Amino acid sequence: GLTWAFWPGETGPEPVAPVAKQKQYHYGSPESAANLAAAIEISHETNRRLAEIHDYTARMTKRERVNGELIPQEEMQVKIREKPFSVYVRHTRPESKAGQEAIYVDGRNDNKLVAHAMGAGAVLGRLNLNPTGWLAMMGNLHPITDIGLRNLIRQLLEMAEKKRDYLLKCHIEIVEDAELNGRPCRKRYLRSKAPSKDFRMAVVQSYFDKEWQVPVHDEAYDCPPGHADG
Hints:
The protein is α+β, with helices and mostly antiparallel strands. It is 17% helix and 37% strand. It has helices at residues 30-50, 149-162, 164-167, and strands spanning 2-6, 55-66, 69-70, 74-81, 86-93, 101-105, 113-116, 126-129, 171-180, 183-191, 201-209, 214-222. α1 (30-50) packs antiparallel against α2 (149-162). The radius of gyration is 18 Å and the shape is globular. The model is unreliable at 7-12 (pLDDT under 50).
């Protein structure tokens, strides 16, 4: 699974797996198909909004399952600039990573990630790493070049295009009156009945802040091993 959030407040949403509810899911229904179309339009609307935002600072909360192991939750301060695409990351939690930094600027440093590790790795000093190399990807599902709101929307739209036939068999909801950390949001909710060979997500939830018109929280949960029916 994967959970992340961009949230500027003092505390961010805790990644809690959704509890199964006693309700009827309408897999592959006309309503779900209409909601898929609405979800795609929300992403395009968000893209238009993000085109007006050239840089921002946020607190990022991340928890991922890497190589079958759920890693501890991490919190980072991030700064992102769109042109040239630039990312600065500074870990604040867990304590073992606090102070660890990384920066990437498209077209600079031979397109290498510049990192300063903490703990035992600090003796190595400054490291210039391939962003998708094994060392930079240790403990991560996605490279630093995938960070950012525009990249998230791009990935969601790519999934909607490539997996459209599969998504049309899912249960999809748009909740207009959702709330997150006291702020009004739109929530997109997807639940799959059974995994496919290359799509094992059981539940996907995305929150879009209505005032800011940007995604603020996204979480996805894998189908458990041997799962064959929702």
